[in-house]
Specification:
This protein is an alpha/beta fold. The protein folds into two domains: 127 residues, no CATH class; 217 residues, Spore Coat Polysaccharide Biosynthesis Protein SpsA, Chain A. The protein contains twelve helices and eight strands. Strands 3-2-1-4-7-6-8-5 form an eight-stranded mixed β-sheet, sandwiched between helices. The chain is globular. The N and C termini lie far apart (52 Å).
Length: 416
């Protein structure tokens, strides 16, 4: 039994890496290769107006820069709506100071912290336009992003959402540099591959656009979900809508620079993913949702892998002290050893492909390649640990409990 467990722990990431790389290359050569550079979008005369929604919670230090970039969009007709979600810092004062400086800007203050889902819904209900572009309160929207996003809604009336391409802008620490590679070799690559194979697991909450009528048809964002972006993606696709990935639509984001902030972010992601898993347990029983079956099966496999990896590491650690017969024989593909070398090689190959794919959007991306050798050690441990912790939390969590922001995911303690 145990050799088979070790084999699954070893081969699962290799198989998924091959699928991601193959799908990403297929996406690149069929959809991306002949596109102009992101600074030269096609300016279509039939482009509809858009509303940019910016939910803010305790973003006083960043929101002014975020609004300046949003208001500098190179697009003929748009509005910007900033939603202050009951911030306890000076976010509200900053927004009030800026609201009279540009006629395109509108500000909404919520009396108390309601969570990002409710903030987005408030902005959507107030928006004048059908196409909604949502970004985080610390994200810098690229000035050409709207052109790249809107074309999908115009070309296909079944498109309900378009997920953009987030890029890391804080690169002064090891964690920041490693996440640069992660967003290219994992986030961007997986979205490319998923789009070629069927459905997309989630839009990127930091840069995503929605058709308002589609969001309305599925009841807007769910206020009890910790990751409203994953949940809305599944709600839309289960209702028959489509989601597109647009790599040219860029947003420059801040990422955690402390281990505490990174753990909190990944635990929230894992917990939100677990909520979506539990909520959609019936998806395999609905033939009309068959395009989502591969995603759901992969979620099951990832969950099993995380718990088996945990068990494998426990056994390996136990074997260092008391060598049992349960531990795999010499030559078996068990990490560490030959398996570690193979996994590291494939991981670096995946990183190289990711850097090559996103190098056209992010100059100097290759300079961070050296730091990516730390990714398996840091992020795999955090990923499977967060997954192992998240599922019991979801099963024990009170149903319909409102999901509210505690603080931005950067290790920052909220004001008392």
């Amino acid at each position: 039994m145990w050799p088979r467990v070790f084999d699954f722990v070893f081969y699962y990431p290799l198989v998924m890496s091959a699928l991601w790389m193959g799908g990403a290359l297929l996406f690149y050569f069929t959809r991306e290769y002949r596109e102009p550079r992101y600074q030269n979008p096609v300016r279509r005369p039939d482009s509809p107006p858009v509303s940019v929604l910016i939910p803010c919670y305790n973003e006083g230090a960043n929101v002014e820069e975020t609004l300046q970039h949003a208001l500098a969009l190179d697009y003929p007709d748009f509005e910007v709506i900033a939603i202050n979600d009951g911030s306890r810092d000076d976010t509200g004062a900053v927004l009030d100071r800026l609201v009279g400086t540009n006629p395109r800007l509108r500000v909404v203050h919520l009396a108390s912290n309601q969570g990002k889902a409710m903030a987005l819904q408030a902005g959507a209900l107030l928006a004048k336009h059908e196409i909604l572009i949502g970004i985080d309160g610390d994200a810098l929207l690229d000035r050409y992003a709207a052109h790249w996003i809107v074309r999908h809604f115009v070309d296909n009336p079944r498109v309900a959402a378009v997920t953009g391409n987030p890029r890391i802008r804080n690169r002064s620490t090891l964690l920041g540099r490693v996440q640069i590679g992660e967003f290219s070799s994992t986030v961007g690559m997986i979205k490319r591959a998923q789009k070629m194979f069927g459905c997309i697991f989630t839009v990127s909450g930091v840069i995503a656009a929605f058709r308002k009528s589609a969001v309305h048809s599925v009841g807007y964002w769910s206020p009890d979900m910790l990751t409203e972006d994953i949940d809305i993606s599944w709600k839309l696709q289960r209702a028959g809508w489509q989601i597109e990935f647009e790599p040219h639509a860029l947003a420059w984001i801040l990422t955690p620079e402390t281990v505490k902030g990174l753990w909190r972010q990944r635990l929230r992601w894992a917990t939100g993913g677990a909520q979506v898993f539990v909520k959609n347990l019936d998806v395999l029983g609905h033939p009309l949702s068959s395009p989502l079956w591969p995603l759901f099966i992969e979620m099951i496999a990832s969950l099993i892998w995380s718990y088996l990896l945990f068990a494998t590491l426990v056994l390996w650690g136990y074997g260092l002290l008391f060598p049992p017969d349960l531990v795999a024989d010499e030559g078996s593909p068990m990490w560490p050893g030959s398996a570690g070398e193979i996994l590291s090689t494939v991981c670096l190959l995946q990183f190289a492909l990711g850097v090559w794919l996103d190098g056209r959007y992010d100059r100097g991306l290759g300079r961070n390649y050296y730091w990516l050798i730390w990714y398996p050690l840091v992020f795999w441990v955090i990923h499977f640990s967060a997954t192992v912790v998240a599922y019991p939390r979801v099963l024990l969590r009170r149903r319909n409990k409102r999901a509210r922001w505690i603080s931005p995911d950067r290790g920052i303690r909220p004001p008392d």
